[in-house]
Every structure is written in C-alpha cells, then in structure tokens.
Prior knowledge:
Layout: H1 19-29, E1 38-40, E2 48-53, E3 57-62, H2 65-68, H3 70-82, E4 92-96, E5 106-110, E6 115-116, H4 125-140, H5 165-175, H6 181-193, E7 201-203, E8 212-215, E9 218-222, E10 229-231, H7 239-242, H8 246-256, H9 260-278, H10 283-301
Antiparallel strand pairs: 1-2, 2-3, 3-5, 4-5, 6-8, 7-10, 8-9
Amino acid sequence: MVSDTPDLGPLPRRVTVDADQARRLIVEQFPEWADLPVRPVAAGGWDNFTFHLGDGMVARLPSAAEYALAVEKEQRWLPVLASRLPLPIPVPLAQGRPGADYPFPWSIYAWLGGSPARADRITDPARFALDLTEFLAALRGVDAAGGPQPGKHNWFRGATLRTYDGQAQRALTTLDGTIDVGLAREIWQTALDARWDGVDVWFHGDLAAGNLLLDGGELAAVIDFGTCGVGDPSCDLAIAWTLLTTEGRHAFRERLSVDEPTWARGRGWALWKVLVTCARAGDEAANARHVLDDILTEYATGK
Length: 303
C-alpha cells in the first residue's frame, strides 16, 4: 500500500485518434475483423478513444501514456472479476499493440449496451441503490491477494485522500465567498483524519453515473475499470452523494455496513470531486453545486 502522499505530476499529454487510424490498427493486427465497420462511440470518454467494431465489439485506445498503464491490468484482472460479479462488466477479447502511428497498447472488448445512469432515468431509486450495493459487496468479496495496488495506473485510487489535498485546497480558495468554506474544510479535514484499517479489498475507483449502465431504468452493467485496484474501497462510496437519493444513500450504507470512518472518507472523495468541478465554469459546475449542498447538509444534519 502507498503510505506517503504521491505526486500526481503534470496533466497527461493526450494524443488524438480518429476512426481511420483505429481501422488501420485493426486491419494490421486483427485481420479476422478487418471487414467490420469502425465508428466512434458517442460520448466515448476522456481516458480512452472508443470505437464500435461491428455491432458486438468495441476498441478502446488510451488517450495518454498514463491511461495506457491500465491496459495490462484490465487484460489480467477483468476476466477474473467478471466471473464473480452479479452484473456484466467489460471483458477483453484481444489486446492490441502500438502501430499505425499510435504509440500505446490498446484493447478490444465485447460491447455492453445500455444508457448511462441519470437520476431521471432510474425507475426505482431505492432498488437501484440496493442493486449497486450488491455489486459492490460482490466486488469487495473477490480475493484481493496479488491485486493491483494504488499507483499511477489508477491515479492512486485506494490510497490516501491526501493525494488530492492540494487540488481540494485550491478549489476551496477559489470558492471562498460563494459556498460555506468553513463547513467544507471541516468535512474535508474529517475525511483526511478518518483512519483506514489497512485491509486491502477490490474497488472500482470511478463509480460515476457515466460508468453505470441502465436498461429499462434498472442497473444493467458497470463499465470502465481503468481505475480499479485493491486498497481502501472508500473511493467507491462517493456515488452515494453524486447520484443516489437520500433514501437510497441510507439503504446503500446500511446494506454495505459502512462504519463511520469509512463513510467519512467516502464523503471526502465525493467532496473532492464536486469542489474541483464547482471551481470550474460551465454547466457541470452548476450541477455540482446541488451535490455539494447535499454533502454539506448530510454532514451537518446526519441525514
């Protein structure tokens, strides 16, 4: 386990990839799929450029060297996790290598259909929260021995929140005068002070609405395991504030049997996310303010 506060370093230097380049890679390396159409996935994400390969597969090409660090991990561990989880997750079908002027390893997966979760698309919020809880409980139950420890491959998810203290403090300074900075600082410090018992368990690492797929308004699949690993699983609790209803959050915590220090760290992960987002301009910042209000209220009232 990473014991000190790691340096996140500069922002990744992203490359650009288009469908023609992805097609050349597939033709060169996987001629059995050379005749399949290649087209970009709508809202394909930031860490990877994502392309439909025919109707049943997807090619994911990391957009920077840092994101490419997750390829070997996903190839090694996702088949192991998939066999033990109650919902579908991406399973790699093949691993590509650099080529066609593209510099990183990459992957081909089976395509998982569904629409990204959004509060107004969820049919039964309480049921959704419990289904998500069952998924996380199963993930945490997978043997963590030999699993990937926190590091650059997952931006130190599963390690100490202090990794992100600089970002949080800068966001608080930016937001001073527009939010209750005193209460936000108290919540953040409480999260930093909350101790972890040191027992490694599996976590997803980026359990956000866009990585939870719905079918008919119900949770149907969980995708994008680039930040997964073993360590402190509290990072996965941020979803309790960023997507779940108040009722769902209570059911989520009760079913997972989350103790107070772990809940405080999970709240800290949620707070870090929304502070950084709120400190930016744009529609995302406006939406994050609602989540921030929920975090402050939940901490202050216990509800």
